[in-house]
Hints:
Layout: E1 6-9, H1 15-25, E2 30-33, H2 44-49, E3 57-59, E4 66-68, H3 70-80, H4 91-116, H5 125-146, H6 161-171, H7 173-176, H8 184-194, H9 197-208
Parallel strand pairs: 1-2
Antiparallel strand pairs: 1-3, 3-4
Helix pairs in contact: 1-3, 1-6, 1-9, 4-5, 4-6, 6-8
Amino acid sequence: MASRPVLWTSAFTSGLTAHLAAAEAGADYEIRFISLRKGEHQGAEFRAVNPKAQVPALQLGPGGRVITEVPAIVTYIARTHPAAGLLPDEPEEQAGTLEWVAWVHWWTASALQPFFAPRRFHPDEAGVKQAATARLREAYAHAEASLEGKEWIAGGPQRTLADLALFFLASAHRPLGVALGEFPRLAAHQARVAALPGVQAALRREREQG
């Protein structure tokens, strides 16, 4: 029997979006967690998988292709599990979904990474964190406005990759000290996504990592 694909990730990092997508798609993947705090992403085992030493990474099989970067991974998951409905077939709707995935990926780099690793950006650690929090609020305000009259962020009849990506971004409100109650539509969206069965299963696995 061929080995299952392995999704390498670290709990409650940007890999969460890929984990949620795999769970909602019902993908038969092994979910393999590594600890960034312990530096396991810099170890020889993981660097052999992804020389960039970043999670997530989707290893399709022993000696097989490795897909990195969240937008690429979640698109692959959705395209290989079409029955899950995570990516619309219609080109315009598909582009709208991927636009949100890419948008979240960009805000992760521009707001979350500076907050959690401020010295990589500037010696003024407090200033970097303050600016990152302000940028996260800016992102939340945009999502809040975009959710007007919508149940799902891309505007379709069911959840898509866009909603899973936004869920990850909105989950950062606690460590960055932003009250999600300031953004009621976003808070309601967060609750809807959190209630999805696949999302609940993935979050349980993430929490088990401590």
